[in-house]
Specification:
single chain; 104 residues; alpha+beta; two-stranded antiparallel ribbon; 4 helices; 2 strands; 34% helix; 14% strand
Length: 104
């Protein structure tokens, strides 16, 4: 356990992902890469169609890039399909969805 505490103190181990799996030797540690590549995917769906997918590649979704996606990707599609007055757009309360610009 002391070995794990030392590693955590160096900042080399993400303490949220540091798990002890073996009961026989709890001092064995395995290194994994932090900040690996990621992708977040967004889509809109209804009973008639799916709009998307839209990929947020290698970035965390925040209020700015989410608003940019709505403004420059999603809204033009629903305008082209003449759906702007026919849809109810529902989101959960996650921070990117709840910013003032996005709600407006």
């Amino acid at each position: 356990m002391e070995k794990i505490k030392k590693l955590i103190g160096t900042g080399l181990v993400n303490k949220h992902n540091c798990h002890i799996w073996a009961a026989n030797n709890p001092y064995i540690t395995m290194e994994t890469a932090m900040n690996s590549a990621k992708v977040n995917v967004w889509c809109a769906m209804s009973n008639k169609e799916i709009i998307g997918p839209y990929f947020f590649e290698n970035e965390t979704v925040n209020q700015y890039n989410y608003f940019h996606m709505l403004k420059n990707y999603f809204y033009p599609i629903i305008q082209r399909k003449r759906l702007t007055n026919k849809i109810i757009f529902q989101q959960d309360g996650s921070p990117p969805h709840f910013s003032k610009e996005v709600r407006t």
